[in-house]
Design goal:
Belongs to the CD36 family. This is Scavenger receptor class B, member 2a. It is found in: Membrane. By secondary structure, this protein is α+β, with helices and mostly antiparallel strands. The chain has 15 helices and 19 strands. It folds into 2 domains: 384 residues, no CATH class; 41 residues. The relative contact order is 0.12.
Length: 479
């Protein structure tokens, strides 16, 4: 049965999983939560930031593989992961086109960090007017708004994008070409990423280990999972590979699953986990456990990634912001995978975008700021297997269990039949012994041994002739 699964679960035309891999049927939801700062003036004077979480603003995420083509004689397949988003008012707290969020002016911080150390450029940016914080609609923060500072900068630098948004150009777009292993040669390679944008290694970080592209893209996992194995996932959003370990057994719609979660070591400091030293491009990029500065792949912007509310991070990061409350239930990232098929039955991908706030020489508005990792937004990308897919998986698991346990059924049936045979033999032996040992009466013995009887008592007692036995049948005697 396992050999059959290995052959069926491959990324080739006609396999059981190919169509669902290209167009996943379960609905995916993307929730966005923003942190609205309520004491801007105090923060500019050096006070502790106070934030209020606002959300969710929920979107239905439609994802499919585009431009799918087989390569390397069918051992690999190339595709683009295209995503589009549709707003769901009934699952949201408000209207993203109306609701205003006060947060960090990310374009302003990107420009200030770009020109810091250059007196003349800093002077020019100050003259253009740069603000530390800004008021924007949720829709603008997500999908883009025209920024006045970027527009002024683009006048002398045409390559500078004048529009900024956290999800700008991500609606209806893709992350570049992926090449995956189909799993034909080895089921353990099913869904594994071979190259991204034509490269098998990243170039953002300082070590080969940090630049490695390992595992899948999070949409497919090999069958016959083991609790002891570590799952690797390459995520372009973080510009790196992360990993997950087994946590516990769970059930989703009657389907057994293994829950895998990222341990603390994934975003640990280089002191806790020396393997992460390569993610420190400079000493300033090493911010501590629970954080990853992704500025090398974000055009130098001081963007810092973490889990929501600094979950699994050092306590000092959550304590530095009034309004942070890390909770495992609400902020943990996890994958629930059926171990037999490797199918995702439930998942929650949670990540937070932060900005490093600190004093920047040449910009007076930042002179009183304390160095702080300021939370801007966190997202929760969730999926749960739909009822039709769950029914198909349950049917497949039932067949798998029946076939896998068929030898046990045969052995069990043989044992039962052997026991029945032994009981019958013992019973027959006892009956035979009872017949042999049972005492007989004189009359019974006579009737059993012969069909004849004496003619009369007189003849029997005749002294001259002795005892005479007449050959007279029983019937005649009775007559």
């Amino acid at each position: 049965m396992h050999n059959r699964l290995k052959k069926e679960i491959v990324l080739v035309e006609g396999s059981r999983v190919f169509e669902s891999w290209k167009n996943p049927p379960p609905p995916v939801y993307m929730e966005y939560f923003f942190f609205n700062i309520t004491n801007v003036d105090e923060v500019l004077l050096g006070a502790k930031p106070k934030v209020q979480q606002v959300g969710p603003y929920t979107y239905r995420e439609y994802r499919y593989k585009d431009n799918v083509s087989m390569v390397e004689n069918g051992t690999m397949v190339s595709a683009y992961n295209t995503k589009s988003f549709v707003f769901l008012r009934e699952k949201s707290v408000g209207d993203p086109a109306v609701d205003i969020i006060t947060t960090v002016n990310i374009p302003g911080w990107a420009v200030m960090n770009k020109v810091k150390g250059n007196f003349f450029k800093s002077l020019m940016v100050n003259a253009m007017g740069v603000e530390v914080f800004t008021n924007r609609t949720v829709q603008g923060l997500l999908w883009g708004y025209e920024d006045a500072l970027l527009t002024k900068v683009s006048a002398s630098q045409p390559d500078v994008e004048t529009t900024f948004g956290l999800m700008y150009k991500k609606n209806g777009s893709n992350d570049g070409e992926f090449v995956y292993h189909t799993g034909v040669n080895d089921y353990m390679d099913y869904g594994r990423v071979e190259t991204w944008k034509g490269e098998s290694q990243l170039t953002f970080w300082k070590s080969d280990h940090s630049n490695s592209i390992n595992g899948s893209d999070g949409s497919a996992f090999h069958p016959l999972l083991d609790k002891k194995e570590r799952i690797y996932i390459f995520t372009p959003d973080l510009c790196r590979t992360i990993y997950m370990d087994f946590e516990k057994d769970v059930k989703v719609k009657g389907i057994p699953a293994y829950r895998f979660t990222p341990p603390r070591s994934v975003l640990a400091s280089k002191v806790e986990n020396p393997d992460n030293a390569g993610f420190c491009v400079t000493p300033q990029e090493c911010l501590g456990t629970g954080l990853l500065k992704v500025s090398p792949c974000r055009k130098g912007a001081p963007v810092v990634a973490s889990f929501p509310h600094f979950y699994l991070g050092e306590d000092k990061f959550a304590e530095a912001i009034d309004g942070m409350s890390p909770q495992r239930e609400h902020h943990q990232t996890f994958l629930d995978l059926n171990p037999t098929t490797g199918i995702i039955v439930r998942a929650n991908k949670r990540a937070q975008i932060n900005i490093l706030l600190q004093r920047i020489t040449g910009f007076p508005k930042t002179k009183n700021l304390k160095e702080t990792i300021f939370p801007v937004m966190f997202l929760n990308e969730s999926v749960e297997i739909d009822d039709n897919s769950a029914a198909r998986v349950q049917k497949l698991l039932l067949i798998s269990n029946l076939v896998s346990n068929f030898p046990l059924f045969i052995v069990g049936l043989g044992v039962i039949m052997l026991l029945i045979l032994i009981v019958l033999l013992v019973k027959a032996r006892r009956q035979k012994n009872e017949v042999k040992t049972k005492p007989r009466t004189a009359q019974t013995s006579a009737e059993d041994d012969t069909s004849y009887s004496p003619v009369s008592n007189k003849d029997k007692d005749d002294p001259q002739n002795g005892a005479y036995i007449g050959l007279t049948s029983k019937s005649e005697q009775q007559a």
